[in-house]
Amino acid sequence: MRALILFIFLAITNISFGQIKFEKGYFIDNDNQKVDCFIKNNDWKNNPKAFKYKLNENSVSQEIDITKAREFVILGSSKYIRANVKIDRSFIEGDIEKLTIVKTPVWSDEQLFLKVVSEGKASLYSYEEDNLLRFFYSVKDSVIQQLIYKEYILVQDGQPNTLAANFGFRQQLWLDVKCTNANMNSVKSLKYNKTELEKYFKKYHECSGDSSLVINKVKQSSLFHLKFTPGINSSSFTITYIDGSNFGKVSDNNTNLRIGLEAELLLPFKKNKWGVVFEPTYRTFNSKTGPFYEFKSATINYNSIEFPLGIRHYFFINNNLKIYLNAFYIPYYELKYNSKVVIDNNTYDLNPILSVYSAGGGFCYKRMNAEVRYYSDRSFLDNDYFNYSYNNRLNVILGFRIF
């Protein structure tokens, strides 16, 4: 069964290498020439320093860096422009250990690809690099400037006292980007994030009568999915008896239905190729076996709900078909119902003592998916002379997306 999982992994990986998606777009070079092409859409979380393109769908890909392209656009997806800006890297939001007592920004001159969030009479840009996030703006043809926000440690009576923040971006917007009938409340509580700043710029264009506003925003599909995931669970249950030199062992194979309800949250970058999955699952194992050693019979009733938490990665084949790999961590805690082992006339409880891991892969077609998933062994607390283990679990799972 491990060989089967390895085969699935290699097959999917082999297919995925060919799935490099280039989308229609263009770039403008240093001579101000527009080059229509196909650009590899990496849906960058961090702003890129270079990008790959093809002059047509069948040509060899080429790479061009920030020194040779003034801007590039992936139609219907994103736009980046090259800019020489002053950027403050002196803090990272939320990283308290690295905060200083300096309130003012520490500027460095850099050439960056800025992502265009919205553009018009006043334009908003963003720059992201790992945990650093900065926003920039320009009005008409003015120089692009960073919107100032900085966290620092406030010093009182000569001692570092409390956390504080420099909200300089509110003053910048009040001076440069405001409606004629605006009051200070419009910027007083404004937060330094994409959602609020984008709304602010949109409102400014509406009140100033600017019809040239373009919001560079891709229409996102739902990032949350809920699926009903029935399937078949093929597994074995082993009972081992050890008393000094006496040894006995019995194992039984069983195939039963499993029922799950999967909640999946897609991460909003890399084209939604990564997702976090939580799938409460009911499965059962019921059998009667024996004799073994001097015992006549063993009856196994194992019914429980387990709570797998995992991560999933998709490989897109086309708009309707995608292949995926996932891995899960399954804590030893589970909800048991009538779970016990009866050996002859003696009853023993089943208490898991180890967490379980699983891995698998499958494909999605529109609202349906199919998957094969393999699980590591589950051990239980010893009872007297008996040891139990739940082994060789292989699931074939069908999924139906509810929404």
Question: Can you offer a commentary on this structure?
Answer:
The protein has three domains: 20-76, no CATH class; 81-218, no CATH class; 224-401, Porin (Beta Barrel), CATH 2.40.160. The chain is elongated. The protein starts with a helix and ends with a strand. It has four helices and 27 strands. With 403 residues, it is mainly beta. Strands 1, 2, 3, 4, 5, 6, 7, 8, 9, 10 and 13 form an eleven-stranded antiparallel β-sheet that branches. An eight-stranded antiparallel β-barrel has the order 14-15-16-19-20-24-25-27. It has a two-stranded antiparallel sheet with strand order 11-12. 10% of the residues lie in helices and 54% in strands.
Average pLDDT rating: 88
**Biggest sheet overview:** 11 strands, antiparallel
How many beta-strand runs? 27
Share in helix:
10-25%
The CATH architecture of the largest domain? Beta Barrel
Structural category: mainly beta
What count of structural domains? 3
Here the CATH topology of the largest domain equals: Porin
How large is the share of residues in beta strands?
over 45%
The number of helices is: 4
The first-level CATH class of the largest domain is given as Mainly Beta
Cα distance spanning the termini: 32 Å
Query: Quick one: overall form?
Result: elongated
* Uncertain stretches of 5 or more adjacent residues: 3-8, 11-19
Rg, Å, rounded: 29 Å
